[in-house]
Amino acid sequence: MTTDVRRSAPDRFEISLDGTPVGFTQFVELDGRRVFFHTEVEPGHEGQGLAGTLVRQALETTRAEGLRVVAVCPFVKKYVETHPEWSDLVDPITRDILKALPRH
């Protein structure tokens, strides 16, 4: 099985398995920060490490683009907390950041 992570829209990264999209992480950009607020992997594909692969690639791209990260999404938050190599990239959540997030 082949996985591929790419930016599929201005506000999301998507992971595909053998060419079929199976998950995404969504964000907003705010003042030089990429605020990740939702990550999802389709049922049936959970527990395969796909979300971790997706988030790692999204963080690598974010770093390469010179942006900071705010981890509002519980999965992204846990990922950066358990992978200290990202700690230099992460900014805290503020009230203004939360106000800027889209409402679902």
TrEMBL record:
Short name of one Pfam family: Acetyltransf_CG
InterPro entries the UniProt entry points to: Acyl_CoA_acyltransferase, Gcn5-rel_NAT, GNAT_dom, GNAT_YJDJ
Entry-linked PANTHER family: BSR4717 PROTEIN, PROTEIN NATD1
CDD domains: NAT_SF
Protein name: Uncharacterized protein
Source taxon at top rank: Bacteria
Molecular functions (GO terms): acyltransferase activity, transferring groups other than amino-acyl groups
Domain N-acetyltransferase: 1-96, 5-91
